[in-house]
Design a protein that fits this description.
Chain lengths: 448, 448
């Protein structure tokens, strides 16, 4: 039994309209607000009122295919979170940005701003971006192979960590009379030279409240897990069963411990997409209602993006064609593809059944039930070594989150699993993570 | 005489502590707030209360030398302006970003966010970045030559214009019943292939309120002028005399007209740094007080950055050594270097006199006087073909701007030279600029 004195983490993963791919067609959805910043600020304020740890934004630097079928727009997360930062005061702000398509020096400046502006609430979801259409937006003829993307990512994290550390915490002097603003001996050119990057100077601003943004990671392939074990302070992961989540949890925490890290300094957060109603039957009916809005042409294109398998023209009500799985060679989304194939194999699904299973949250755990049932699941996963909390992915927004905040969060609170109020002003504080020292300050102390 | 029915443009150029290099040491300065976003939000609110057109932020992706001597920190402008956007409702938001060190696809997303979040108030100050220490932060062994930077800049502007145009204005359908979010025939992969960039896809979000941010430019070299005449909708420029400003104004507007552009669609805005007091003597005394806080070691390093000439060790009170000018070979900041040499030649300055002249606003026009005198200068320049308005660079902040807003702006208003209130909600509206059609929509109409 995992120690339960430490409370669960709950993030709100915001996706315009909701996470169910057809949610935007649901009566209460507001797809016309997908570019309206107040839609997102309102959601973040609700999440803050419920004392959640953070809001979370996915991203990729390309317009998704099939925009015809839904508001799959992608506002740039760091600017979006900056506008949310100004409208809130406590909630964490986690944004996704790609190590494959940013220059480290530009990215550090953006996140340093977010951390300064928010008073220490920034988190960076580190992704390598597998989508090929992103490569085409950056002059590349094809995406880089998986292993090479992770090699670049590791060096990228090394570079940006140095940059965020380049001003020691006590570098500022601000002595008007003496005319000294900063102690230059405590500001360090990083002098990084590596296979992917050469970066010489220090950051353009003093160190931010958290030192570095919280490092979040979402890859679950072997390379992704090993990267996460080394660098991640929170992990967003997809599991259909508690057993799968437990195996992942044990593996990543063990890998982290083997690297000399404290396993408590990694928060493992599966996605959960809950349909909530006062009876289980009503919750299932709600799910059915939204499932009925699914557009198979879109779902099949999504499945092709995840797995590389194109089911256009197949009978939706026939069993998923096993030979396509047998012939499949693994590509980018390896762990998600595996999850989908496991689903097909273990449950013998038809194509229509599979796309309904994936429509809810793209492979994340979808559940329909009463508030108590949802709370039971969260408790079961969160107290038995399957999760340190969850990334909550409401099927539709904003109503799907309202139900979670009003009915599930209070139960978790009664059970002593979730905070009554914030006890910290930073995301590191909410997550129970240490604030890293500047590596340059440490180096100086060691050599002194 | 230029048409005066069109009113003057006034921007507030924000620089932490103020534009005078020693202002942060002045009693009323608040250098400890240089990373406090509320300092900037407060200034922007004051500028908005005075009905100014925009706030303006400079930038370069490197920490300036000699940070010891003053708060020359550089918060990333787009995030900073996003936080300001949320705290204001009308004022324009102009941020500097470098075409040499950004990927076009990343930059368009950031400015599209700012324009969406602000409801159409974004402006982009397009710079090529001459500082060598920026190149070292992006893996380059040296800065690119001036001409090559401008070639890349021109293609960069071409690419980002296509991306900002990639969604036609009426691409959104949002029909829940039919399941159609967007009309894909009105969203265009840009398919750009050029010597510097290959970018295939469309932007990740619908077209922003202004279509494109306002294009601002600040280069005054021949290459800079020619670039500005082609692309700029506002130009930030440095002149020590009305004659120099008039020559520049006539040249750029003529070049624009020769390219088939409407010269009224370029706002030419010299910098002005005014010391304001109720008598001219008091204003001069104020200037003297702040000049007395100058640290020559810093000024000499600034001068070296501008001109490449290192005066360390020279007698500050001896005439500027003419042989150093004679031996000089032009580098990056060509137009600013020329301005400095002209100053030395025409006025026979000592080194100390020169650094005092430059300390105020790095070569921009510095003046001390009564509110009436300042207003007279602005009127003279702004109604005689020298300027369409000014980038106001208060010597110290926030007090230096308070005096301008409280005492100079009302005089300009009385004279019919400046708006009583906003008549538009966008920066394009404030500047009297048209909203560009999407080039793809135009192409379709032409071919129809």
């Amino acid at each position: 039994m995992t120690d339960t004195r430490r409370q669960l983490t709950l993030n709100l993963f915001i996706y315009p309209g909701g996470h169910h791919e057809a949610a935007w067609r649901y009566l209460a959805a507001e797809p016309e607000r997908a570019l309206d910043i107040t839609y997102y600020q309102d959601l973040a304020r609700k999440a803050e009122a419920a004392k959640l740890d953070a809001v979370f934004f996915a991203d990729g630097p390309a317009l998704p295919d099939k925009i015809r079928f839904g508001p799959r727009v992608r506002p740039e997360p760091i600017t979006w979170l900056t506008a949310i930062a100004v409208a809130t005061s406590r909630i964490g702000l986690i944004g996704t940005a790609s190590t494959s398509y940013y220059e480290p020096y530009n990215l550090v400046r953006l996140f340093a701003s977010l951390d300064h502006i928010s008073g220490g609430r920034a988190g960076w979801n580190i992704v390598t971006t597998s989508a090929e259409n992103a490569a085409f937006n950056f002059g590349q003829p094809a995406q880089q192979p998986h292993a090479e993307r992770y090699q670049r990512a590791a060096e990228f994290v090394d570079v940006v960590s140095k940059l965020w550390d380049s001003w020691e915490d006590d570098a500022l002097v601000i002595d008007k009379a003496a005319g000294i603003y900063a102690d230059e001996t405590r500001i360090h050119d990083i002098e990084h030279i590596g296979p992917h990057f050469r970066v010489k100077g220090a950051l353009t601003v003093p160190r931010s409240p958290q030192g570095r943004p919280v490092y979040v990671q979402a890859g679950s392939s072997p390379a992704g897990r090993s990267f996460a074990a080394r660098y991640a302070e929170a992990i967003f992961t997809a599991h259909q069963t508690i057993d799968s989540a437990r195996a992942f949890y044990a593996d990543v925490k063990a890998q982290a411990a083997a690297l000399g890290r404290d396993p408590d300094h990694i928060r493992i957060l599966p996605g959960i997409s809950p349909f909530i109603a006062s009876t289980e039957a009503e919750a299932r009916q709600l799910q059915q209602e939204i499932d009925d809005l699914i557009q198979p042409a879109y779902s099949i294109s999504q499945l092709r993006d995840f797995t590389g398998i194109d089911l256009t023209g197949y009978d939706l009500d026939a069993p998923f064609p096993q030979h396509l799985i047998d012939q499949h060679t693994t590509r980018g989304h390896t762990s998600r593809t595996q999850l989908i194939f496991d689903l097909v194999r273990s449950e013998g699904l038809t194509i229509r059944q599979l796309i309904r299973r994936l429509a809810g949250a793209r492979g994340h755990y979808v559940v329909a039930g009463t508030p108590e049932q949802i709370a039971d699941i969260i408790e079961a996963w969160g107290t038995s070594g399957a999760a340190d909390g969850f990334n909550v992915m409401p099927p539709w927004l904003t109503g799907g989150f309202d139900r979670f905040a009003e009915h599930v969060v209070p139960i978790l609170r009664q059970r002593g699993l979730f905070r009554e109020d914030y006890t910290s002003t930073t995301l590191r504080g909410h997550f129970g993570l240490p604030r890293p020292d500047s590596q340059f300050a440490t180096a100086l102390r060691k050599s002194a």
